[in-house]
Amino acid sequence: MAEANWYVVHTYSGYENKVKADLEKTIENRRLQDVILEVSVPMEDVVEIRDGFRKTTQKKMFPGYVLINMVMNDDTWYVVRNTRGVTGFVGPGSKPVPLSEEEMARMGIGKETLKIDLAVGDTVVVVSGVWEGTIGQIREVNESKQSVTIAVEMFGRETPVELAFSEVRKTN
After folding, report:
1. In degrees, to the nearest 5, what angle opens at C-alpha 120 toward C-alphas 119 and 123?
2. What pLDDT is stored for residue 35 in this prediction?
3. Which domain CATH number covers 131?
4. Rounded to whole angstroms, how far apart are CA atoms 26 and 33?
5. What distance in Å separates the CA atoms of residue 32 and residue 49, rounded to the nearest whole number?
6. Which of 1, 36, 129, 166 has the highest count of CB atoms within 10 angstroms of its CB?
7. What is the C-alpha to C-alpha distance for residues 167 and 160, in angstroms, rounded to an integer?
8. What's the structural domain count of the chain?
9. Domain harbouring 79, CATH code
10. Sorting pLDDT into bands at 50, 70 and 90, what band is 22?
11. Residue 109's pLDDT is what?
12. Is the dihedral of CA 130, 134, 138, 143 positive or negative?
């Protein structure tokens, strides 16, 4: 069996979620789950501050586009291409071009997310790098960058230091 790749499909603006729903329904009805593996409308959290209130909303990362993980053949091409709202695959002419590993990594597709048990206020010890052996208290956890900012004492005052999750270990 051929290998599944990620493809980008251009849609009418504002129809991304409708295209996704229609495709998922078609996949289920035609039993194509083994060749069209996933349909995705990448979203990102955006923090807006309005009237002094902090509000988190989700916005489409690529308006007008839907990502599809599928095995490309004549049947899957036809199903996707003839879904209402789809204007075509991204690629020269009518030939779809799969996303490269590098492009997928930049978009965060297929990237495994690291879950950690670190929280603001925890005391950690640095286990590698130039700060190895240093003990500090976590001031900030940044999951998207997979880092923590700890406060260490340097020259008699607290100094913030940003470290990767892999560089620190929680103390008991």
Report:
1. 80
2. 92
3. 2.30.30.30
4. 10
5. 43
6. 36
7. 15
8. 2
9. 3.30.70.940
10. very high
11. 65
12. positive
